[in-house]
């Protein structure tokens, strides 16, 4: 009888803990760059050059990781909160911010001026021949950073 | 007289040539989808859509990284990339099509023009023909394109496990809202 109770309580505890875990995971927001330190700090063109040399290897190293890049602001989209950082000829880094971060640092974003941005790396485009899918406009070499913030270092 | 005529023809030819190479483009287009059934909010946005419009021919093209979609929940984002979209295997989604009634859009005159877009949408490595209605708003040198359409997940071989059948819709409502600026080639 006592043994049955122990089994029952253990099973109930496991079910309860699992439910709490699933609930926590469901409510957990995606990682943002301000929550952690950058694993690498490099210039926008260095990132593109690195990807150009070894796209697969470097992309695996940086994927879903926080990295910091420095570069000149080429374009700014105040509707989508994105900064396009110049990374050399036909190359750029697309830095996507949330509205709070973008609004907070908007005054620091000036076209033609340097920005030091931290963001989670989510992939690159334009490095393979098969990437060139758009006949109208060649796909430029680019890397995508999400949930960006200013790198205060 | 002949010189004047020659110069006029040359000017017209040159201006036509320049007009033909004027495209509208953006690298931060907005695309969202909603695949919820009401039980749970399954929505995501992609703010890094690269797109271009050729105002002369009406050709319109989109390209986006699947990993560029942002969810409210990390778990959903992970499932979306790993289980449904297999974003390592199929990292991009593209659309290549035409604005079928491009002649009704006057890019030189401010206004909002209803448009129909037809073309091939590639998602999860599967290409299908889609048609969408939307608008093109011309405001000076800026063009804002919006469109709404739905796709069936099964058409793109996106698996929906029976466990999440109640929460995940069989179709996804897609919204596009892109602000283009002039690209002179």
Would you kindly provide a written description of the structure presented here, covering whatever features stand out?
The complex is a heterodimer of chains A (153) and B (185). Chain A is built from 4 helices and 6 strands, in the order H-E-H-H-E-E-E-H-E-E. Chain A is α/β, with parallel strands linked by helices and 153 residues long. Chain A folds into 2 domains: 1-29; 33-150, Nucleic acid-binding proteins (OB fold (Dihydrolipoamide Acetyltransferase, E2P)). In chain A, helix 2 (44-53) packs across helix 3 (55-62). The longest helix of chain A has 26 residues, at 2-27. Chain B is α+β, with helices and mostly antiparallel strands and 185 residues long. Chain B has a single domain, classed as Lipocalin (Beta Barrel). Chain B has helices spanning 2-20, 74-84; strands spanning 22-36, 43-53, 59-65, 69-70, 92-99, 111-123, 126-139, 142-152, 168-184. An 8-stranded antiparallel β-barrel of chain B has the order 1-2-3-5-6-7-8-9. The two termini of chain B are 34 Å apart.
Explain the layout of strands and helices.
The complex is a heterodimer of chains A (153) and B (185).
Chain A: H1 2-27, E1 40-43, H2 44-53, H3 55-62, E2 66-77, E3 82-86, E4 91-96, H4 99-105, E5 114-125, E6 141-150
Parallel strand pairs in A: 1-2, 4-6
Antiparallel strand pairs in A: 2-3, 2-5, 3-4, 5-6
Helix pairs in contact in A: 2-3
Chain B: H1 2-20, E1 22-36, E2 43-53, E3 59-65, E4 69-70, H2 74-84, E5 92-99, E6 111-123, E7 126-139, E8 142-152, E9 168-184
Antiparallel strand pairs in B: 1-2, 1-9, 2-3, 2-4, 3-5, 5-6, 6-7, 7-8, 8-9
């Amino acid at each position: 009888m006592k043994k049955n109770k122990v089994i029952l309580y253990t099973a109930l505890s496991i079910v309860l803990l699992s439910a709490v875990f699933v609930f926590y995971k469901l409510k957990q927001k995606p990682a943002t760059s301000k929550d952690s330190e950058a694993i690498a700090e490099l210039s926008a063109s260095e990132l593109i050059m690195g990807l150009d040399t070894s796209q697969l290897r470097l992309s695996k190293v940086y994927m879903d990781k926080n990295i910091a890049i420095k570069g000149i602001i080429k374009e700014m989209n105040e509707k989508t909160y994105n900064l396009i950082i110049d990374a050399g000829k036909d190359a750029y880094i697309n830095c996507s911010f949330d509205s709070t971060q973008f609004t907070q640092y908007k005054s620091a974003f000036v076209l033609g001026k340097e920005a030091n941005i931290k963001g989670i790396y989510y992939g690159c485009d334009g490095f393979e021949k098969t990437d060139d899918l758009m006949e109208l406009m060649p796909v430029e070499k680019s890397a995508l950073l999400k949930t960006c913030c200013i790198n205060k270092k | 007289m002949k010189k004047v005529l020659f110069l006029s023809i040359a000017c017209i030819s040159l201006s036509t040539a320049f007009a033909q190479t004027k495209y509208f483009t953006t690298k931060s287009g907005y695309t969202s989808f909603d695949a919820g059934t009401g039980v749970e909010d399954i929505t995501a946005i992609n703010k890094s859509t690269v797109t271009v419009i050729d105002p002369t021919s009406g050709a319109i093209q989109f390209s986006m990284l699947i990993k560029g979609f942002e969810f409210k929940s990390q778990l959903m984002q992970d499932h979306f990339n790993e289980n449904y979209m297999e974003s390592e295997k199929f990292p991009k989604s593209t659309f290549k099509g035409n604005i079928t009634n491009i002649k009704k859009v006057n890019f030189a005159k401010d206004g909002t023009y209803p448009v129909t877009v037809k073309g091939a949408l590639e998602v999860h490595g599967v290409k299908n023909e889609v048609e969408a209605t939307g608008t093109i708003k011309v405001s000076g040198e800026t063009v804002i394109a919006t469109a709404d359409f739905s796709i069936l997940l099964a058409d793109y071989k996106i698996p929906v496990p029976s466990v999440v059948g109640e929460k995940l819709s069989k179709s996804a409502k897609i919204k596009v809202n892109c602000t283009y600026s002039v690209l002179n080639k």
